Amino acid sequence: MSIGGDLVLSVRNLDVKFYTYAGVVHAVSNVSFDVYKGEIVALVGETGCGKSVTTRAITRLIDPPGRIEGGKAYFRRRNGEVVDLLSLSDEEIRDIRGNEIAYVFQDPTSALDPLYTIGHHFYETMIDHRKIDKKNAIQHAVNLLKETFIPSPESRVKNYPHELSGGMRQRSVIAIGLSNNPVLLIADEPTTNLDVTIQAQILELIKDLQAKHGMSVILITHNLGVVAEVAHRVYVMYAGKIVEEAPVEELFENPQHPYTRLLLRTVPDPTKKIEKLESIPGTVPSLINPLPGCRFRDRCPFASEKCLEEPPMVEVGKAHRVYCWLHTVKG
Ligand SMILES: Nc1ncnc2c1ncn2[C@@H]1O[C@H](COP(=O)(O)OP(=O)(O)OP(=O)(O)O)[C@@H](O)[C@H]1O
Ligand code: NI
């Protein structure tokens, strides 16, 4: 297996469905994206568009009735070996998760066991993947907490989760994620439940840690302000598909997909979760047996007959691709 030498992750044609009583939910359809060494990639889109399912799928955290139905997720391991995460055994993926790929979830409380100290969480994460004694693990924990700007880390490692503020808990979860020096950090809306100033600090922290440790980051967010501040490259998702990808400045200066344009125009308060774009009539279509073709077509001001067919991928600039019929060469 081989992927470009500068790639850490290359996802191709990922397909995930949920077999519910109400019908088959096509949560993620034909999603392809890349993550290069040392870059922060943002996945953005309205609620329910498939951001979390995408990253959960590549780390194999999809539970029934969900099924990964197709695709590849090539990952370059720390030792340089390239594996397809989707075809590894359960044991092999467990060895990678929490070690080479760290996952930080939206809710830091659920990531921490109330019965154990912060220090113990570090120890557990480390001992799962290598031999280390508790004393060394705690020393490493203190160093990582220091890096995440947690005051008096020596006493914090002895604290229980409830003794820390929400912001401190999320910093701790990020520090725990770093304890095995991951190749890839996935942060799924890491600041959603925190107040605005703390959000900004956590993001600044992720940015600093990325630069310092040289890992790659996938940042899931609904906050376009965050994207502009932190990300290097962006993938815009709509209804389970990627509709546009571009370097961050390019996306903001020269958005091409009608959905991206509306997304950029219609978020007055970037700290609010985008549940629904008020200025676009309609809502995200049901992902149960979605119609073929462009999934945005019933909300798109420019939709035409063409859009009943699957939109082509069009290169509109350097590393800038859009999946839309509007951009095909005319004539
Ligand atoms: N366990 C499940 N059973 C059925 N459908 C599911 C399940 N988990 C996710 N889905 C569906 O998959 C689709 C994608 O969900 P996903 O959580 O990836 O969205 P998201 O983009 O992360 O949204 P948010 O911004 O709200 O976190 C949604 O339509 C959701 O209803
Ligand atoms: Ni999500």
TrEMBL record:
Domain ABC transporter residues, every copy: 11-264
Subcellular location: Cell membrane
Top-rank lineage group of the source organism: Archaea
Primary location: membrane
Alphabetized UniProt keyword annotations: ATP-binding, Cell membrane, Ion transport, Membrane, Nucleotide-binding, Translocase, Transport
Leading EC class: translocase
Membrane topology category: Peripheral membrane protein
Any one annotated GO CC term: plasma membrane
EC number: 7.2.2.11
SMART domains assigned to the protein according to its UniProt record, in alphabetical order: AAA
Gene Ontology molecular function, alphabetical: ABC-type nickel transporter activity; ATP binding; ATP hydrolysis activity
InterPro entries: AAA+_ATPase, ABC_Ni/Peptide_Import, ABC_transporter-like_ATP-bd, Oligopep_ABC_C, P-loop_NTPase
Family matches, as Pfam families: ABC_tran, oligo_HPY
One GO term of the biological process aspect: peptide transport
Catalytic reaction annotation: Ni(2+)(out) + ATP + H2O = Ni(2+)(in) + ADP + phosphate + H(+)
Keyword ATP-binding set for record: yes
Self-association and partners: The complex is composed of two ATP-binding proteins (NikD and NikE), two transmembrane proteins (NikB and NikC) and a solute-binding protein (NikA).
Protein name in the entry: Nickel import system ATP-binding protein NikD
